[in-house]
Specification:
By secondary structure, the chain is an alpha/beta fold. The chain has nine helices and twelve strands. A six-stranded mixed beta sheet has the order 2-1-3-5-6-4, with helices on both faces. The chain has a six-stranded parallel beta sheet with strand order 9-8-7-10-11-12, sandwiched between helices. 36% of the residues are buried.
Length: 252
């Protein structure tokens, strides 16, 4: 029996309650992996990342969250093709020879949860709006591109602004995806400023936020009889993809 301690973890800032730590700690316990553990590495600058590697030689993999999904890339030796296309990494596999390989499991989690939720005949004929333009938005954008779903990006500073959203734009695009942290605990009283009065029962509002379970963004959709979904299933799916990648041979 191999008793070598194997460590996984999460880097980001700030790190409060962590889904990943809870998820993997419970998984290790359930699967009797006593030599596995999961730690939080809260760093206020990405320049401190090499120190984490130096101080934890038993690290086998890392999840990456806000604000480092793009900033982490220069520290990696290789990216898979999906992470390259997205331009963001939320998963690092550390090989036996200490090479750092970057992946994006958000892509897989979002794609699968979207397909689980919206009937295929509707999904293939829909148009979308992505709210936000960070790392999570980049994953959503790549999923939609690969599924041939037309989309527009709405944010506060460039591309299409929130204030530019009209009745025609909202009514034409039935899938609205919130990739921003607006509404996420503890700031649960915030939500993307879109004209919700144009939302209909034919709309699908997907919020990548998972805490709280029902965000104000989702409540606005419910008020207009739209279908709504939070990011909890996506988190589960991307976590399982992380575990799969950490435990498979890396092809170079």
């Amino acid at each position: 029996m191999n008793n070598k301690q194997i460590l996984y973890g999460l880097i980001g800032f700030p790190l409060g309650h962590s889904f990943s730590q809870k998820y993997f700690t419970e998984k290790f316990k359930k699967e009797h992996l006593q030599n596995h553990s999961y730690s939080l590495f809260e760093i206020d600058t990405i320049e401190k990342f090499p120190l984490i590697l130096q101080q934890n030689p038993n690290l086998s993999g890392l999840n990456v969250t806000i604000p480092y999904k793009k900033k982490i890339i220069p520290f990696l030796q290789k990216l898979d093709h999906i992470a390259t296309k997205i331009g963001a990494v939320n998963l690092i596999k550390i090989t036996k020879d200490a090479q750092l390989f970057g992946y994006n499991s958000d892509y897989f989690g979002f794609k699968q949860s979207l397909e689980n939720w919206i009937p295929q005949n509707i999904l293939k004929n829909t148009k979308a709006i992505i709210l936000g333009n960070g790392g999570a938005a980049a994953a959503a954008k790549t999923v939609l591109e690969n599924m041939n779903i037309p989309f527009i990006i709405v944010e506060r500073q460039q591309n299409l602004l929130y204030s530019h959203l009209t009745k025609d734009i909202i009514q034409e695009r039935k899938l609205i995806i919130n990739t921003t942290p607006l509404g996420m605990s503890p700031n649960t009283n915030t939500y993307p400023p879109i004209p919700y009065n144009f939302i209909s029962p034919k709309h699908y509002l997907y919020d990548m936020v998972y805490n709280p379970e029902i965000t104000l963004f989702m409540k606005q959709g419910i008020k207009n009889n739209a279908s709504v979904k939070n990011g909890y299933e996506m988190l589960h799916l991307q976590a399982e993809k992380s575990w799969e990648i950490w435990n498979t041979i890396t092809h170079t």
